[in-house]
Protein: 4Fe-4S ferredoxin iron-sulfur binding domain protein
Amino acid sequence: MSLLITDECINCDVCEPECPNGAISQGPEIYVIDPNLCTECVGHYDTPQCVEVCPVDCIPLDPDNRETHDELLAKYHLIND
Structure:
């Protein structure tokens, strides 16, 4: 699964620079995550870095973008190789 930023986001700006794939950007009102770029940090870190730094816990798994660990790893290789 990719991750999703909910409307509880306070636009604190800490998640965007932590994303190693550049999947996080400022949306019209809050930050958004591009599911085509999000690997939940698989290939880079053991845990999603945006989740680690988020002060309001507003970055859950996106139920509309389910992916296995192997699929996330394959996406990582597509993005970074």
